[in-house]
Amino acid sequence: MRHALWFLVLVMSLLGARGAHAQETWVQIEAHSTLAEAEERARAYSGAFGNVAGFAMSTGWYAVALGPYSPDEAGAALTRLKSDRLIPDDSYVTDGTRFRQRYWPVAGAPSVDPAVAVTEPAPTEAVAEPVAQAPAPAPVAEPEETQAEARAAEALLTREERMLLQTALQWSGHYAGAIDGAIGPGSRRSMAEWQTSAGHTPTGVMTTRQRAELIGAYEAEQAAFGFSDIREIEAGIEISLPLGLVAFDRYNPPFVHYGERDGSGFQVFLISQPGDQNSLFALYDLMQTLTIVPLDGERGIERNRFSIAGANAEIASYTEARLDGGLIKGFTLVWKPADTQRAERILQTLKSSFKPTGTQALDDSLGQPLAEPHEDLIAGIEVRRPILSRSGFYIDASGTVMTTVEVLDQCSRVTIDGTHDADVAYRDAALGIAILKPREALLPMSHAAFRAELPRLSSEVAVAGYSYGDALTQPVMTFGTLADGKGLDGEEDIARLTLRTLAGDAGGPVFDMGGSVIGMLLPRKESDGRVLPEDLGYALDTATIMPALAAQGLVPAATDRSGAMAPEDLTKLAQGMTVLVSCWN
């Protein structure tokens, strides 16, 4: 019987409060996420004002207000009190429609003596510090609502308040349904999940206090993130961005850069460019060369869209882009791994709010030139660089590659031509050779045909290699002669060449003029303080290479062809066979 009477009083007070609020105007001066903090602030203000009131809000926060006033009185009071710096600058006038139960004044709260105090301090008077008083008795916490009382309180929520509840549940990761204000089985399950995670009994019906806890946490994070709806006209994109964490930096097509604010660790890049399906695929490959996209993570590409997720010990990111009507638009979010939980919530908002608009993309002329060296940047973003690159060549039709072991030192990842991941199938440090197997099937235009014997001394030879790493997209041909069938110190397994090569050429194939491979170029090594001539080169000969390959179950193609090819034909053969091998960390 006692609970029924209490419940009836609660319902009547809620209904009465709504009716009263519609006729009253207030100056809201503060709002707090916890009742204890709000009561403390209300108590402090009551030492100077005689009309302090406190209300639980439909948002789950707790308002501190002055009033009630008529609308005209409220506006005048707000202007006067803000001018005299007696209330915060962000105070505002409200009709109290979001106010619910009153929590202040409570029994024992300090107040200004109405016989001597005015509702507000005179504008010209300084506000004195509240006089110390005997500690007020702590307010007695209201008992938690019963399930019936919680259902009754929930029934009084407006549609907007129920939608806010669903939004907060979605933000907390417990709700994936539509934000429609309809409390159905999905909403009930998500409320029970939240109750369990928060240490409450999972009833599926949240009490007023639990709703305040959930919504208060949601709105506190929203305030910290500072989400604002951005209409990026130049890029043709509308999106809600966390401007508490990022700030506009610059245009650098195809990106709009939003850099981290105050060391937040978050960055956002809006993507906008004209293009077709080939452009989309090219952008997909380009993104994976940037340092903001770690190599490890899920990624996928379809006919008109792609997504890339990546993470390492230092950075994590997510990118998505879509092709529609000749325009490619999307975004990238970058964060520190320690902020992954917050990043997941931000991603929810970015994905749900992202909207391509208009018929334009970023103009290539937008933005200012940067002071940084452009060879390491694409559109103002640092490009991931290998720690070492050397040459290699295909030795069979399935894409198996031979290269120098020099390129494998301190590698966590090896690629062929920059994009194809490969595994080390065999390495022989003594001979200086390594065999790489691509992780995906490759169809080389040509592969090596080995000549077992060296041509006669002083014959013309050629080396194909990436002399300048990835600065060029094709290998360089370097011509010279076969100087000797052994090394300067009498080594029988190497041939001495007279030609000028660079470090990047090491691992490349050495050809005779008929297009047969007669060896693999070895790295130049200075030893014993000797400075060797610049036109001295060494090649591991095929008489040594072929048995080593056979021991690994590889059967390289052999040839005994003779005669000479036209230089342009030899160059074409070499380009189809030679690859760039890169070591990444």
Write the layout of secondary structure elements.
Blueprint: H1 2-21, E1 25-32, H2 35-46, E2 52-57, E3 62-69, H3 71-83, E4 92-94, E5 99-104, H4 147-155, H5 159-171, H6 185-197, H7 208-225, E6 227-232, E7 237-242, E8 246-252, E9 255-260, E10 267-274, H8 277-287, E11 299-301, E12 305-311, E13 316-324, E14 327-335, H9 340-353, E15 355-356, E16 377-378, E17 381-382, E18 388-394, E19 401-404, E20 413-416, E21 420-428, E22 433-438, E23 449-450, E24 460-465, E25 476-484, E26 494-498, E27 509-512, E28 517-521, E29 536-541, H10 542-551, E30 557-558, H11 567-577, E31 578-584
Parallel strand pairs: 23-30
Antiparallel strand pairs: 1-3, 1-4, 2-3, 2-5, 6-7, 7-15, 8-9, 9-10, 10-14, 11-12, 12-13, 13-14, 16-17, 18-19, 18-31, 19-22, 20-21, 20-31, 21-22, 24-25, 24-27, 25-26, 26-29, 27-28, 28-29
Helix pairs in contact: 5-7
Quick overview of this protein structure:
Helix content is 25%, strand content 30%. The chain folds into four domains: 17-133, no CATH class; 147-224, no CATH class; 228-381, Mog1/PsbP, alpha/beta/alpha sandwich (Protein Transport Mog1p, Chain A), CATH 3.40.1000.10; 386-585, Beta Barrel (Thrombin, subunit H), CATH 2.40.10.120.
Considering the chains and any ligands shown, give keywords for the structure.
about 575 residues; alpha+beta; Protein Transport Mog1p, Chain A; 4 domains; 7-stranded antiparallel β-sheet; 6-stranded antiparallel barrel; 11 helices; about 25% helix; elongated; disordered N terminus
